[in-house]
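Suppose you are handed a protein chain with no further information: no name, no annotation, nothing but its sequence. What can you learn? This example shows the usual starting point.
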Amino acid sequence: MRIVLLVNDNPYNAQAFRKLCLSRHSEIVAIVFSTRILAGKNFSFLQALRWLLDLSGPQLFLFRAIEVYAYKWRRLWKHFGFYRNRFDMIEFAKANGIPIVYSTNVNAPDFLARFRAFEPDLAVSRINQILKKKIIEIPKMGMINSHSSLLPKYKGIDGVFWGMVNGDREFGTTSHFIVEKLDSGGVIAQEAVHLDSLTSGISLHGLEDVLNELSAEMLNSVVSVFARGEKPASVPMSEVGASYFSFATREGYRRFKSRGHRLIGIHELLKLFL
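A reasonable first move is to predict its three-dimensional structure. Written in structure tokens, the prediction is:
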């Protein structure tokens, strides 16, 4: 089977794709990294930083910056023999001779020609770009996504954050086929996590960590069905209870704090650099 991954170069995708990459490295024929900084925004790097800071406020901005740059800091130090056991998608691709492709627009004709040349049987995407019909139809067995919510609730961005803002006690992850309408394809698998079953006072970072590990197990399991030459059963995405959320905001963070939540614990922060 020929698999193409479409991702962002960040710690969340590295965690969610780690098991799939390690178990099926010989079947991955390319990894596509988005060079778009923000979903739906054609901003330069500095414009994106300024926009995010204005929207989300300093606390959320700094929190996400630390998560992402700790991941890239570890990549730098890997060259000196540190962090050998920390999975990194770019290092993984290089070590296994997997072609790396960078794209700002995966729907552009030049990219589509290159993508088609990989002759993918399956594409797995968590990229921050909206995928159009032409690219979705290229993989022979389809294109799938892993989304950190119990779809159809919390379609879009930052679903875990908004779930905590809204006082939800149940979270989860969904594997589904990708169609043109955002987060609306047939559901292949779904698994819920109840806050009551987790550590009391779990942080946003901690909850996202749990859900990314769940996504890693689910993606590996779902792709194993495709690898047997079968197309996994799916059920149409219901629109009952559907909701859509976008980037975290200052007001959202105020409500998040008012519920007694925290972004990250001290031990979790230290672990990012250890």
